[in-house]
């Protein structure tokens, strides 16, 4: 996860260590790391010394955490790009350069920001800005598609979540600004044991429930308010009569369960390098933060929940029941009231910001400007692809499908371009469904 940290220790000694995340010896710390047999350090937050990325991975049934950052004012720590026979990741403790020298840590991100983070909210009053901390995970299919490269994976997840976060930043009360605190990758299908799959279709509801148990029973480098799983396969539900899975959904989440351990989870499809399901991801996170579908009544498991009966029409907002979720890429007034209700319901432990570092400041970039409608349409349906075009940031994929008497027909599907897709002339890119210059948004 990404966070500003320091370790409260005496001067570290240069060498190779194998960090292990353990319970803190101090009741005031957020955890501890054991660097050697006799060397245990408590984790404390700081907005002074710098930033760190925890990139976690599951392999051979063991969860490893890479740790980069500062031990104190004189020494830092970073992972060596090797593993020992046990699969553990050795880390190097090294002396920091003098202040006039440049500090370089091999963090797989593009740039850093000098922007000051907002202050923590430690009062009992709900904050005007809610910063839900999120851990994003992805399956072995996405891991392999992104060439098993931590750099490519981190960059892709940050850009994808920048698009999602842009949508949440339109919420007025409470203002919402997601905070990415961790990235977790599963290297093999054996490691993602909670995924229920048949014929390359993932059971949405069964996998979501098991994923919740996984997050509840796993020690992460940083705890989060919600955990989101991305799968590079189709999601489906079971036919009640045949018990067979069919690809019928794109995502799933539990309404209003942010900060509820074991239930604060969501799942969605994603197909790199397309940033394809950004609206689905935003929709499912909207559920977690308290929003039911527009037009629905209050959810039964949350007493006093306001529901969204008054917002059944027009069916154009992020929490509409079905269909393409496109412009204006906004949440309805009902959704905002529901999220505000859940914010107050979950209380200070949920809404207070545990890390002062906003990892989205690492890069504000969104979907790459080199992606074309043809790339998207071919990736979605390579076997039947015929042609692709885009107008007003709406992509139309034409596919050859079987017709009558052995003939072929052309079937057209539309997709709303992810934020950042190139459009028009003069370097325009899609942003909330409009073709415009977005330099001020991504720089």
TrEMBL record:
PROSITE patterns assigned: ADAM_MEPRO (PS50215)
Q: Which residues form the active site?
A: 284
Q: Does the keyword NADP apply?
A: no
| Biological source species | Ixodes ricinus (Common tick)
Q: Which UniProt keywords apply?
A: Hydrolase, Metal-binding, Metalloprotease, Protease, Zinc
Q: What is this protein's name?
A: Putative metalloprotease
Pfam families given in the database record: Reprolysin
**MF GO annotations:** metal ion binding; metalloendopeptidase activity
Domain of life, per UniProt, equals Eukaryota
Which residues does Zn(2+) bind? 283, 287, 293
Record SUPFAM superfamilies: Metalloproteases ('zincins'), catalytic domain (SSF55486)
A GO BP annotation: membrane protein ectodomain proteolysis
Peptidase M12B domain boundaries? 130-355
């Amino acid at each position: 996860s990404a966070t500003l940290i320091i370790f409260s220790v005496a001067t570290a000694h240069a060498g190779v260590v194998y960090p292990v995340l353990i319970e803190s010896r101090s009741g005031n710390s957020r955890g501890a790391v054991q660097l050697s047999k006799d060397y245990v350090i408590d984790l404390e937050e700081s907005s002074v010394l710098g930033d760190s990325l925890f990139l976690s991975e599951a392999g051979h049934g063991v969860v490893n955490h890479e740790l980069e950052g500062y031990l104190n004012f004189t020494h830092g720590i970073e992972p060596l790009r090797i593993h020992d026979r046990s699969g553990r990741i050795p880390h190097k403790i090294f002396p920091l350069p003098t202040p006039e020298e440049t500090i370089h840590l091999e963090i797989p991100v593009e740039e850093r920001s000098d922007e000051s983070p907002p202050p923590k909210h430690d009062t009992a009053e709900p904050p005007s800005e809610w910063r839900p901390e999120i851990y994003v995970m992805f399956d072995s299919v996405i891991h392999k598609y992104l060439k098993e490269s931590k750099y490519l994976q981190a960059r892709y997840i940050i850009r994808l979540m920048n698009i999602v976060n842009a949508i949440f930043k339109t919420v007025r009360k409470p203002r919402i600004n997601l905070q990415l605190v961790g990235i977790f990758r599963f290297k093999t299908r054996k490691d993602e044991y909670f995924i229920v799959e048949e014929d390359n279709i993932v059971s949405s509801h069964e996998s979501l429930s098991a994923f919740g148990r996984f997050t509840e029973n796993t020690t992460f480098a940083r705890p989060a308010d919600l955990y989101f799983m991305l799968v590079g396969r189709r999601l489906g539900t079971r036919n009640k009569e045949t018990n067979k899975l069919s690809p019928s959904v794109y995502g799933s989440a539990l309404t209003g369960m942010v900060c509820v351990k074991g239930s604060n989870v969501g799942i969605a499809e994603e197909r790199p390098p397309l940033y394809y399901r950004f609206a689905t991801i935003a929709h499912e996170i909207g559920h977690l933060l308290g929003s039911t579908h527009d037009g629905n009544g209050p959810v039964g498991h949350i007493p006093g929940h306001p529901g969204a009966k008054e917002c059944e029409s027009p069916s154009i907002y992020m929490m509409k029941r079905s269909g393409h979720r496109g412009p204006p890429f906004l949440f309805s007034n009902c959704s905002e009231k529901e999220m505000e209700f859940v914010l107050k319901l979950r209380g200070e432990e949920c809404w207070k910001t545990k890390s002062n570092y906003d990892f989205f400041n690492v890069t504000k970039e969104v979907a790459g400007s080199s992606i074309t409608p043809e790339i998207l349409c071919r990736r979605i349906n390579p076997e039947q692809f015929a042609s692709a075009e885009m107008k007003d940031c709406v992509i139309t994929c034409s596919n050859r499908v079987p017709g009558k008497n052995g003939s072929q027909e052309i079937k057209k599907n539309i997709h709303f371009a992810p934020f950042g897709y190139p459009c028009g002339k003069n370097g325009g890119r899609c942003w909330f469904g409009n073709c415009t210059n977005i330099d001020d948004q991504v720089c």
